[in-house]
Amino acid sequence: MEKQLYTYKYPHPAVTTDCVIFSFDGNDLKVLLIQRGNNPYKGYWAFPGGFLNMDENAEQGALRELQEETGLIPNHIEQFHTFTDVDRDPRERVVSIAFFALIKPTDVRGGDDASDAKWFKLKDIPRLAFDHDYVFRIAQRTLKEKIHFESIGFDLLGENFTIPEVQRLYEAILEIKFDRRNFQKKLIQMDILEEVETEEEFSKQVRNTNKDSSSKGRKAKKYRFRQEKYEEMKNTDIFKLEF
Amino acid sequence: MEKQLYTYKYPHPAVTTDCVIFSFDGNDLKVLLIQRGNNPYKGYWAFPGGFLNMDENAEQGALRELQEETGLIPNHIEQFHTFTDVDRDPRERVVSIAFFALIKPTDVRGGDDASDAKWFKLKDIPRLAFDHDYVFRIAQRTLKEKIHFESIGFDLLGENFTIPEVQRLYEAILEIKFDRRNFQKKLIQMDILEEVETEEEFSKQVRNTNKDSSSKGRKAKKYRFRQEKYEEMKNTDIFKLEF
DNA sequence: GCAAAAGTGTTTCGTTTACACCCATGC
DNA sequence: GCATGGGTGTAAACGAAACACTTTTGC
């Protein structure tokens, strides 16, 4: 514990990063929250995050905090807003650079054991610490907008997935319903998926993805993303918003 | 000149705001730059901005700096990215929250006289100070994306304008060309404009807008935005990107 | 009178939407 | 065997794209 102090001629706010981490289990979109052990907001849930070091940029800081607090390595991370209200932290002036992160179901750890981190379905999110309710609203809106331009939805899916899964994902993100037949048609027409042989049905991947085996109906075909299409896809919208 | 110092247990970056200010003169999209009088980057052009005060949030700080440095009062201001690279400022660690601002032609001042501020057409922008070349690229991309969702284009037009002006504006922002007839048809169909009587042709507004009177062809009809349509329009895209 | 810019309508094409029946699986 | 979820095709409606000629104005 050194006692070095840092002095400036003008007051400086503290700078932190916060991460809104989304994942998708095949049915529901979820976010990871951490329960605070200390005041302020002791016992409240909040997004993982922490102070920015002087030798890292914001993205590196966000990834480091994520690793430290949750062990997660996201598939996609992206800055979406910086929150600067004067009183957003009662301790001192804190400016928070917020990111959203997308995690594949195969990478989901944390929240399984008795840790202080837990995955919440969007509709089960409790009242959050600090201004994190507001942070979440902006994150959700940004995700909706982004998916309009970029195919980041696939960053939330495992290697193999079914078309109805993709549909549930897009419906969860955009909070609208699509016609099953039109959705399937459009996705197939885009020529970005290839069918996966049924042998692979027994792989660990699949069991993971279908873990809630309350599946009653007909078994859906498995697809994978055609890697060679990735570059040209990255900046393509998949489903236009139609309200 | 007080000599008070501010001390912290951990190092804090400095926090600034920067503004990319767009305006439109009826033909070209322009941005306002300020020539630096001091090192570092003395003589280089840069976006206006400055340090965030402790009693204001980022938007307030950006508006204050804008007012101080340029006297401009923007029609629309919006945070778009926070730049955090470790070495982006050689003096100290500086995190910059960047905004873009849209100014109506009637509000354009600054850069007219012999000040250190000047409006540049996008294609005439020189090499900029700090990482502002990168800041500009992100600002331009954000503007393109935003205009897809929101009708912020009208924040760049004066009270009265012609449809060909609107078209030139959208073409400048999106860097694509539209068919004149389809553009006009779509804009009219949206039912958000009303024609302005020709009497008003002699108003000061109009002369301002048409200031580069190298106009050779037929005189275009003047329109104004139907205010009562504003609320429902705010979140509507006008022209979808089609490359 | 000529060049440059703006006004105007129709047809074609592609995309989106709406919609119904059959099939496989788990209980 | 029945309820649930998934597979598949077609027709209608809508919106986007392509396209040419006339009018006004400044030089």
Describe the 3D structure.
The structure is a homodimer of 243-residue chains. In chain A, the strands form two sheets. In chain A, strands 2, 3, 4, 5, 6, 7 and 8 form a seven-stranded mixed beta sheet that branches. Chain A has a three-stranded antiparallel beta sheet with strand order 9-11-10. Chain A is of the alpha+beta class and 243 residues long. The first copy, chain A, has six helices and eleven strands. The A-B interface holds A 5-15, 51-52, 54-59, 79, 81-82, 84-86, 93, 95, 97, 145, 148-149 and B 5-15, 51-52, 54-59, 79, 81-82, 84-86, 93, 95, 97, 145, 148-149. Strand 1 (6-8) of chain A pairs antiparallel with strand 1 (6-8) of chain B, so a sheet runs across the interface. The first copy, chain A, binds a DNA duplex (27 and 27 nucleotides) through helix 4.
Brief descriptors of the model:
homodimer; alpha+beta; DNA-binding; 26% helix; 6 helices
List the helices and strands and how they pair.
Two copies of one chain form a homodimer.
Chain A: E1 6-8, E2 14-24, E3 29-35, E4 45-46, E5 49-51, H1 58-70, E6 76-83, E7 94-103, E8 117-121, H2 132-149, E9 160-162, H3 163-174, H4 180-189, E10 193-195, H5 204-209, E11 222-225, H6 230-233
Parallel strand pairs in A: 2-7
Antiparallel strand pairs in A: 2-3, 2-5, 3-4, 3-8, 6-7, 9-11, 10-11
Chain A binds a DNA duplex (27 and 27 nucleotides) through helix 4.
Q: Roughly how many Å apart are the termini of chain A?
A: 56 Å
Secondary structure: number of strands of chain A: 11
Averaging pLDDT over every residue of chain A, what do you get? 87
Oligomer: homodimer
Q: What's the helical proportion of residues of chain A?
A: 25-40%
Main β-sheet of chain A, in a few words?
7 strands, mixed
Stretches with pLDDT under 50, minimum 5 residues of chain A = 200-212
Q: Considering residues with a beta carbon less than 8 A from a beta carbon on another chain, report the largest interface and each chain's count.
A: A-B, 31 and 31 residues
What's the helix-strand series of chain A? EEEEEHEEEHEHHEHEH
Structural class of chain A: alpha+beta
Q: From the alpha-carbon coordinates, what is the Rg of chain A to the nearest angstrom?
A: 20 Å
The best one-word shape of chain A is: elongated
Percent of residues in beta strands of chain A: 15-25%
Number of helices of chain A: 6
